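TEACHING EXERCISE
Course module: macromolecular assemblies
Task: Read the component lines below, then compare them to the predicted structure of the full complex.
Student: A.B.
Group: 4
Components provided:
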Amino acid sequence: MPRVTIIVLGGTITMVPQASGGIAPSVSGDDLVAAVPALVDVAAIDVVTPFLVPGASLSFAQMATVADMVTAAGQNGADGVVVVQGTDTIDETSFLLELACDTGADSAAIVVTGAMRGATAPGADGHANLLAAVTVAAAPQARGLGVLVVLNDEVHAARFAQKMDTGLPSAFGAPGLGLIGTVTEEAFRLRLIPTTLAFPALSLADAVPVAIVQTGLGDDGRLIDTIADACFQGAVIAAMGAGHVPASIVPKLEALAGKMPVVLSTRVPGGAVFTASYGFPGSEIDLIRRGLIPSGILPPHKARLLLACLLGAGFTTEEIQTQFQAFS
Ligand code: ASP
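Instructor-supplied answer key:
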């Protein structure tokens, strides 16, 4: 029988109606596991509940603790680890765990799941998602794939997974790429193997403040002027299209890139930032020449996490450029 450790952090999957109105985290990991008897047919389960918080309130410090717990579970013989949490940040936390934890073929599989409907809602998806996540985590073929996100019987690679809908049980997608597998008839069916990244393990506890600024039509870039004064140590620009900004804000971005690493990402959900196609003022070629670092396929929120961890680990701007190239 495979061994799977479940680490419950909260989220809608643990939420029930409150006397004060609305739903909030309440169900412990023990109660969650007890509510899904079929788990015992899939794996020998250990469950812990270090926090019960909404996904949006998870911190770098808490995720550093979770990364340590994931690593310890693997060292103690778990075949897989399932992190259960709020879906609002699953696309961020799963990526952070990929940056911090060993996901080689000899390590425990790491899976993150949650639910889109509260624990007592009609058609609540939490129990099915937990069972599917444990099924994947217990499967030998889940090892060595990087961190996986499992909801709605769909299996995504953390690097590419994004929350694409605020309410649907099928909220997660990987724009332009799709699923790497499914859970079908109670088994993990792996269809595609994601590329592996040779990446130094990063400490999440050392992450530093990094700003995201999204630009748009008619933006005069005044927010960019505030970033250095607010003591951010890096910035991510959510540009338009393949990495384009209004020509009028280019001098502000160039000045900022002289003070701190500035990553060029895009507000478009799918596709990589370009590096060598457009030559107008405010284009990706122009901005990269002025010192901005293209984010590759990382959307702004994942680029922010990577930059925060790299800066926290003391990487230089040149080294940061090299690390981002892995995502080109
Ligand atoms: N809507 C969120 C969820 O699905 C709430 C949260 O992230 O805690 O879990």
